[in-house]
UniProtKB/TrEMBL annotation:
Name recorded for this polypeptide: Toxin HigB-1
Record-linked SUPFAM superfamilies: RelE-like
Top-level division of the source organism's lineage: Bacteria
Taxonomic classification: Bacteria, Pseudomonadati, Planctomycetota, Phycisphaerae, Sedimentisphaerales
Coiled-coil intervals: none
InterPro entries listed in its UniProt record: HigB-1 (IPR007711), RelE/ParE_toxin_dom_sf (IPR035093)
Length: 93
């Protein structure tokens, strides 16, 4: 489930379908990935499909996880209990 956002533009996209600040080429995939997070009961649920590339991050992002939206974009978040917190959309390139 989604417990909160760090990224305001992502929150507006999720709650109000405001796409203004979201790259047009990822809108549909991003919506699907957010739905996966919203329906996940445990972090392991996000291992499927394998194209998510669920990853526990290291270094200064230790404690965060990421899943791929596409080759360029990632959803980064913390997971606690049954909730994803501090969700943000990150450009990896």
């Amino acid at each position: 489930m989604i417990g909160g956002f760090q990224d305001k533009k992502l929150e507006l996209f999720w709650l109000e379908d405001k796409r203004r600040n979201i790259p047009i080429n990822i809108v549909n995939v991003l919506r699907n990935k957010l739905n996966m997070i919203a329906f996940a009961e445990v972090i392991e649920d996000l291992r499927v499909p394998p194209s998510n590339h669920l990853e526990a991050l290291k270094g200064k992002l230790e404690g965060f996880y990421s899943i791929r939206v596409n080759k360029q974009w990632r959803l980064v978040f913390k997971w606690h209990g049954n909730y994803a917190f501090n969700l943000r959309l990150t450009d990896y390139h």
